[in-house]
Amino acid sequence: MKTLNSLSPNYLLALLISFLMPGAHTWADSVAGINGDIEITPLVHSSVQLEYEGFVVQVDPWAPIDISHAKPADLILVTDSPGHHLDINAIESLSKPGTSIVIAENGLDKLPNAIVARNGDLIKVSGVTVEAIAAYDIIIGAPNHPKGDANGYVLTLGGKRFFFAGVTECVDEVKALQGIDVAFLPMNIPLGRMTPSAAADCTKILNPAVVYTYHFDQDWARRLANPDFGGSVLPGGLSVPETLTAFEDALSDTEIEFRRGNWYPN
Fold it and tell me: Which domains does the chain have, with CATH numbers?
C-alpha cells in the first residue's frame, strides 16, 4: 500500500485543507486525466461528484445535508431506488437543460423519463461511455439486494476508468472487471458480508490505482430519519472508524492507494 510520502501532492493538499478548515465538510482531490486533472469530490454516504474539463458527473446525489456547493451535472448516475440513492429533490437541484440521467430499472417508476441501464448494458451518453455492472447479494440478508435490481457503473472519463460499485458483494461481474483506475466500494453493507476484509479482498481482485470505501456508516444515515436510533453492532464489535483502519491494514501489502474521503459531517 502506498505510504504518505508516495501520495499525490493534490491529495495531500486536500488533506491539509480538511484539517485546517474543520468546519468545511466537503473537499476534493484528483487523479490525472489525459488533458488535466479529474477532480473527485466525495459529497455524502455514496454521493460523489466528478469534474473533468468542465464536464460534471453526479453519482447517487443525495441531499440530507446542504449540497449547494455541488455543481449542476451533465450526467447523473443512479445505482438503486432507495431515497439515499435516488433522491428526486437532489436530482432536480443538480440538473440543468441537457442533463442526462441514467438509472437502474427499479427506479423507472420514480423517474419515468430517465435512461434505463440494465445489468451488462454498455451505453454512450453525454459523450462518455457507461457500463452497467450487476450489484447484488450473494448471501441473502436484510436489506435484500436481489440480482438484476440495481447497478454499479464503470464510467470512462479523461482516459480513466472509474468504478462505482453501488451496494453489492464481490460478485462475479465485479471480479471480471479489468483496467479499473479508481474504485468506490461499499463496506459494512451488505451487513456481515462486505466486511473490511471482504472489501479489501475485492479491492485486490480489481487492483485499481486508487480505492475509496463509501456507504459504510449506515447508522449515520439511519439517524437522519430517527435521531434516537441506538446504533447497530458491526461484525467483530468494530466501530466505523475501526473498520476503516482494518480495511487500510488489509491493503498494506499492496500498492493500492486508499483514500478515505470525507463522507460524513460531524
Answer: 25-258 (3.60.15.10)
248 vs 236: CA distance, rounded Å: 16
Task: Please name the residue that has the C-alpha cell 470525507.
Answer: 262
Altogether, the residues listed in the chain come to a count of 266
User: Taking CA 260 as the corner, what is the angle to CA 258 and CA 266, rounded to the nearest 5 degrees?
Assistant: 170
Rg (CA), the chain: 17
Query: What pTM value is reported for the model?
Result: 0.89
Which amino acid is located at 177 in the chain? Answer: L
Handedness of CA 147, 149, 152, 155 (dihedral sign): positive
- Preceding peptide of 186 cis, ω within 30°: no
Summarised one tens digit per residue, pLDDT across range 170-207 is: 999 999 999 999 999 999 987 778 999 999 999 999 99
Core vs surface per residue 102-126: b (16+ CB within 10 A) or e? bbbbbbeeebeebbbbebeeeeebb
Q: What is the pLDDT of residues 23-50, one digit of tens each?
A: 344 567 999 999 999 999 999 999 999 9
Q: Is 146 or 120 the better-scoring residue by pLDDT?
A: 120
* CA atoms of 177 and 103, how far apart (whole Å): 20
